[in-house]
Amino acid sequence: MGEALAELRSGRLRLAADPGGAAEWPKRRKHLLLDSVLRGWPIGSLHVVQGADGVRTVMDGQRRLATLQEFIDGRLDLDGRITPHDQGLRESDGRLYPNLPSGLRAAIDDYPLVVLEIEGMPAAELRSALLRLNDDTGLSEAGRKLVESGSFGAQVRELVLNAVDWGLTEERVSFSNVGLAYDDVISRALVAVEAGSVRNAAADSKELADRLQSGHPVSPETRTEVAEALKELLSLPALDLPPVRFVKATLLSWLLIMIHARRSLGPGSEHHLGHLLEWFEPQRLRLAARLKLDTRPPLRSGMRDLPYEALLARFNEASAVTAHGPDATSLRDAILWLFLVAIGGAPSRRVEPVPAVMRMYEALTQPDAAIEDDDLDELLWAHGGLGSWGEWR
Predict the structure, then answer these.
(1) Coil/strand/helix, residue 15
(2) How far apart are CA 8 and CA 61, in angstroms?
(3) Per-residue pLDDT reduced to its tens digit, 311-349
(4) Could you report the per-residue pLDDT of 28-50, keeping only the tens digit for each?
(5) Domain residue spans in the chain?
């Protein structure tokens, strides 16, 4: 164990990201692992892959090594009260590694590790193999399909790792990658862009199911388009504002409109989206908390009649109930486009999808429109053309 931890500190050994995106172990589980090592009990083998640069990567056993490194560094104490009772451990309860008796420090340093080196297995297959090895990931069936989706899954995973470097973290978007939440958002965006349809970003879309089944990667052009838009979204200053918080459904919607706006409206759309995001997310969260809006949206003169409070409320509903279905995904996208055009984010009314947005606006603001009577959906679907919304040209 001492040699493995020394290699970890020197960089000759590194830890791969958890294949299931699982959360960090709770302190109780870390204490149990440490207790097992000190008693000389088995903790399982490590699976490593050696790269072309000679560096070995731990593909299975990452959190075990990380926990022991945490203890050696003095960031985790010893729980000596774990049963069965052991007098030596009980006397060291609450101590950090530097303060342990030399015998207990030696028990950690000299603990024998079984290390299995994997050779000749493609990365996509390796991820699937290790996921099957660990049955405690807590992944849903959809998450497992994503992990086992061959080259497409590997493509998604690479984008997720890049996105974390760009700022896709719990601190900035308010949720972590537990259960492969980031992988889910990105995979659905890739499928939607490849098909040119927002509805294909639904969790139960046939296109997504087929992609997970075949494992066939999306085109390099689609991958690049999604990556560039994701990087741009994560660079918006609005994401550093405390009131800006996402769930999977809303992050997906903002990513899709960023992609579509960059494609249709060209340079400058990011500025308008960032401006909208600063107002939209804090205000919709106020509404969700049953608070009154404290500012009005910066609507341009020609669209000041937009029923923005009703649209915010409907966006919230479509982000919670059946949030991942095709209708809810399309509705959220349409609402964001209504706001984007209303604040002046479109250079021309003739550029798609602006004409379709204006038809929805006209349906919502016709003289007999009864927004207060909860007729918003009927106005959008029956008169605003929402049924055909989201097909990119």
Answers:
(1) strand
(2) 13
(3) 999 999 999 978 999 999 999 999 999 999 999 999 888
(4) 999 999 999 999 999 988 889 88
(5) 2-123, 141-388
